[in-house]
Amino acid sequence: MTKFYGTGVALVTPFNDDLSVDHQALHKLVNYNIDNGTDYLVISGTTGESVTINKQEKAEIISTIKTANAGRLPLVLGIGGNNTAQVIEEIKSTDLSEIDAILSVSPYYSKPTQEGVIAHFKAISEACPTDIILYNVPGRTASNMSPETILSLASSCSNIVAVKEAAGSMAQYHKLLQHKPANFLVISGDDDLALAVTLAGGAGVISVIGQAMCSDFTKMIKLGLEGKAKEAYQLHYKLADITSLIFSENNPSGIKAVLQAQGLTSDKVRLPLVEATNSLKTKIVEFLKAYGN
Fold it and tell me: Would the pTM count as exceeding 0.90?
């Protein structure tokens, strides 16, 4: 599973002024990440505004990213939800060629018991022809997938190979790292904790800020994987302010403001999200000027 070590990035979905998908900007963003050291790409996750992307648009986004990537980096595709049958149907109806794994979020809104979460992912595991990365993000799902649940799935389902853990709890990360099967990966879903998790034995990160600050962010994670904490933390502190800024209002409004300032994409988002405030945009531009980006 070395293909999921290092820095994966949860790509945004760039939009034109009319809020149609900007495929030219998406192609440019993929190449920017490949050229600057990103290790793998995550398609249609939360940061990609997956809940406001329709089925046809999602297929077109996948096609654009596959074309731009041209087989250079591993690809992870977001397929998840709180309707188990619907998730399975999407898996079965999606062309998963060139897709190395799916990223499947823990069921949201319904707030199932841990037994329900296990049953949900076991059903998905049986239906899925490729590897699965679990995604635990209780701040969005309103339900925490416990370490015991994750470890149970890791032990019982051979194609569940990793978890993107984003509960924001180092204690939860440590419990997973202490008890996980040897070949199961714990991937940080918290940009601010990514280095600490990597140094503790994690496999790296699926990042939001990493797609904008690729060079230094990927270098930081590589140093973390090598156990070079002092050098890695120098980069962590260099990036700390921008990492905090992009989540101060909403994701992906913050990261899209950064990408706009870099000339990579527009900052357009679909309702119910709104663009970053002028105050936040000013802080981002000031940071980038001081950073030399």
Answer: yes
